[in-house]
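Dear colleague,

Following up on yesterday's call, I've attached the two folding results inline so they're easy to grep. Please treat them as preliminary; we haven't cross-checked anything against experimental data yet. The first protein's sequence and structure tokens come first.
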Amino acid sequence: MEVALLMELALPRVAAIMLEGLRAQGIVDIAKEDPLTLRFLSAAQAESQHEERFLAAFDASGLVLPGLMADFFEDTIKALQEKIWDCDLEATKAHYRKMLLETTEVEKEMNTWTEERRLAYRSSHANWYYWHGYGIIHARPAYMSAVRLPDGMTAGYADFMRSAVCYSGCFTPVNVGTVDACHSACHNACHDACHSACHSACHSACHSACHSACVSGGAL
């Protein structure tokens, strides 16, 4: 999940990777790609907390809850930013590209393995379902390419974090009439003055200027 975001995949492709992993676990199937609608097959718990939180952004009928989905992506992206703010991003991306290629090769070899060996491999490799999904999406660009998320969740994480969607989330009232005008104006002001400025100044520069300033200023 975080690797897909780091590699700057569009959010619908990130969702497709999550869905492929959940489908491999027998938890959901895709009833419709546009708009994304799930069919729940099992009440079993997913392999990871990321997947559980992703599933929580759908209602009982399998439809996306826009506010919860926005919160899911925002929280995940913020957690990722905290991990990578002082990393060499290109080296990190190169590392995961190598892992992806290695996983793809293993997937090919697994076709010749016994079922017992396949199960043993999967159980001994953390996040296998994720890498399985990533490998499929990477190798087959047209696969699940029609998956559509709510407005504001069609680009990569950088554009999403600059959008109004990422801060509105569950705070956006539903069917409130004229309250919308006040609510939107307030959030626009806060977003323009704080959210955008923060992400432009901190996220974009965190790998160089921000980190250098913190070190030279004795903050770290």
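Below is the second protein, in the same order (sequence, then structure):
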Amino acid sequence: MIALKTPIKIAGYVAGLAVVFAAALWAGGRFDFSPQDAEATPDGAHDDGHGGDHDTAADDPPGGLQIAQDGYRLVPESDVHTGGDYRFHIEGPDGAPVTEFTTEHDADLHLIVARRDLTGYQHLHPELADDGTWSTPLDLPEPGQYRVFADFAPAGAEGLTLGADLAAPGDHTPADLPEPAAEYRVDDYTVTLDGDVSAGTATSVTLSVSLDGEPVTDLEPYLGAYGHLVALRGGDLAYLHVHPEGTPGDGETTPGPEVGFQITVPSPGDYRLFLDFKHDGEVRTAEFTLSVPPTGGHPDDTPSGDTATESPSGDGHEGDDDGGHGH
């Protein structure tokens, strides 16, 4: 089974908000989140004050921690969002907006959105205008500090994941990271996570999908695979690249119930996994808390197969097809 333990409780992730969080917790755990509280951290800095606490095993830093890399920069039109379209462009090494991209996983750019407490996950596919401006409708259901990740490959260049902060003003109480569980229930589906993940090593994880207790064997292709997995590290929200094992139509990969991925976590700690899968024309998301112990260590506890978490009402999907879901 997957190595899981009781996660650390996350009270806040942005160093600039530490005093605000502490005061709010002392006063009763609530505070008003205003745009002026949302100071962006320097490019590439760890926003939660952990700094060098992460012992990153990989040579390259995880994605999403920097707003600029290799001459490319994520340029949002605003760092505060109150509704409507979210707009941004990718600035190239020549200082001009990039207008040509390489399609990866059936899209030219993937936009991932999550609140700093790892709630409010969304996977969106913005539209590109001729002038290089990307735009997508974005509804942030709860106030707080969010992180947006642009995952893309400029034409003729390597793929990048750049990140930027985004504030949704209002009264906000950070949520605790959910307890680890081997199962997640969304609608009438149950998704089970299995694997043995170690820091710094590429390992396989398997997610199995069932419906009303019966294995699902007719998953539909979604973004070039039978599932799309996003992993975010607790604390700094480092974005991990996860690769599916096999593709639809390769003569070997079956459409469920199991969907396999190769994942490399750069350091011990807590992670949140988000599996998007498509069945009966609708995309759903299963979410898991994964705790990776130090090398040679052991988790505090491993939940039984009966342990499960449930999808909160409203999972961020807006329709029954790819476009309606915003994926």
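For the second protein, one point worth flagging: The longest helix spans residues 18-27.

Best wishes,
A.L.
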